[in-house]
Amino acid sequence: xxxxxxxxxxxxxxxxxxxxxxxxxxxxxxxxxxxxxxxxxxxxxxxxxxxxxxxxxxxxxxxxxxxxxxxxxxxxxxxxxxxxxxxxxxxxxxxxxxxxxxxxxxxxxxxxxxxxxxxxxxxx
Length: 124
Prior knowledge:
The chain is mostly beta strands.
């Protein structure tokens, strides 16, 4: 399968070239699980393996979501936004998406002028 690369607008982020925003969403519930960056190699490996690969801007390297935790994101569908500057992976999330052990990285909600933890921690 050849990905239509010309549809994506890769950008230089923090001095790292050719990155695109990647969003992971639960394919069944629609819950947004996390956002990160990926690049061409990450997309290629994601297509080859069926599991999402991201690019860490802090570690400056490609990584497979779940490679150390076992909390993989199995791809069900892939979408590209209208401007081509973001890719959406609809996934089957195995375990926690958040490195802090929550199902989603969006486990904190602003309400009543403060941040409240509303998500459930599912792993340590």
